[in-house]
């Protein structure tokens, strides 16, 4: 069964609404032991990296996700801060360890000497490069973003990446084997977001 992790730092209501619309069975979980039996995992998150990471580690979800994702190979999709938590380290609110599933750091978006508004908020094209999870979604489709920090991936990390441009190329989506992360909010991205989530459920 699909399990949606509630760290109390996520936009849970909107995610649940879309998953119900898609029509798949799911369970909203608040305890790490409830990950048992997961066929897929969605990890939403909003707010600061440090607050979300601390909550994840203190609750025991970090260890449980490590077991189910890295050992049991359960597909996972991190959304917004949930994607950022897949990284090794985040600097927002002070340097804090993430899950380390992706060899990356999460750093503040460059405002280009004040010429860009931070946070990056609104609709932006995503260059999907024929990545399978974007099946039936046109390349350069618009998705909804709200973030001030972005994932910077190590050059030697073997991942698939879709970008958006906001003064520079920013990682909008990352994929390493069965591990997926979306910096955008698919649950707020209307039809393309619904298709993206449907693809994760059906294809990954």
Give the % helix: 25-40%
**Content-based structural category:** alpha/beta
CATH class: Alpha Beta
Share of residues in strands: 25-35%
CATH-assigned fold name: Rossmann fold
Mean pLDDT: 95
Task: Report the uncertain regions.
Answer: none
Figure out the total of helices. 5
Neighbour order of strands in the largest sheet: 2-1-3-4-13-12-11
What's the number of domains? 1
Cα distance spanning the termini:
14 Å
Globally, the shape reads: globular
CATH superfamily: Class I glutamine amidotransferase (GATase) domain
Subunit structure: Heterodimer of HisH and HisF.
GO molecular function: lyase activity
Pfam families: GATase
Pathway: Amino-acid biosynthesis; L-histidine biosynthesis; L-histidine from 5-phospho-alpha-D-ribose 1-diphosphate: step 5/9
Describe the structure.
- It is built from five helices and 13 strands.
- With 204 residues, it is of the alpha/beta class.
- It has one domain: Rossmann fold (3-Layer(aba) Sandwich).
- The strands form three sheets. Strands 2-1-3-4-13-12-11 form a seven-stranded mixed sheet.
- Its EC number is 4.3.2.10, 3.5.1.2.
Brief account:
This protein is of the alpha/beta class and 204 residues long. The chain has 5 helices and 13 strands. Helix content is 25%, strand content 32%.
């Amino acid at each position: 069964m699909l399990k949606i992790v509630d760290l109390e730092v996520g936009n849970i209501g909107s995610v649940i609404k879309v998953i119900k619309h898609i029509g798949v069975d799911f369970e909203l979980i608040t305890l790490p032991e409830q990950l048992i039996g997961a066929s897929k995992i969605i990890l939403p998150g909003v707010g600061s990296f440090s607050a979300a990471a601390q909550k994840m580690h203190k609750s025991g979800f970090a260890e449980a996700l490590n077991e189910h994702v890295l050992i049991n190979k359960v597909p996972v999709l991190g959304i917004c801060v949930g994607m950022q938590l897949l990284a090794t380290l985040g600097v927002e609110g002070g340097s804090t360890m993430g899950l380390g599933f992706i060899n990356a750091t999460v750093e503040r978006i460059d405002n280009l000497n004040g010429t860009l508004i931070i946070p990056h908020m609104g609709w932006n094209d995503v260059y999907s490069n024929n990545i399978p999870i974007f099946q039936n979604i046109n390349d350069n489709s618009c998705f909804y973003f709200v973030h001030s920090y972005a994932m910077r991936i190590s050059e030697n990390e073997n991942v698939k990446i879709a970008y958006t441009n906001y003064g520079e190329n920013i990682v909008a989506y990352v994929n390493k084997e069965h591990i997926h992360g979306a910096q955008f909010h698919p649950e707020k991205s209307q039809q393309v977001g619904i298709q993206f989530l449907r693809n994760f459920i059906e294809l990954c």
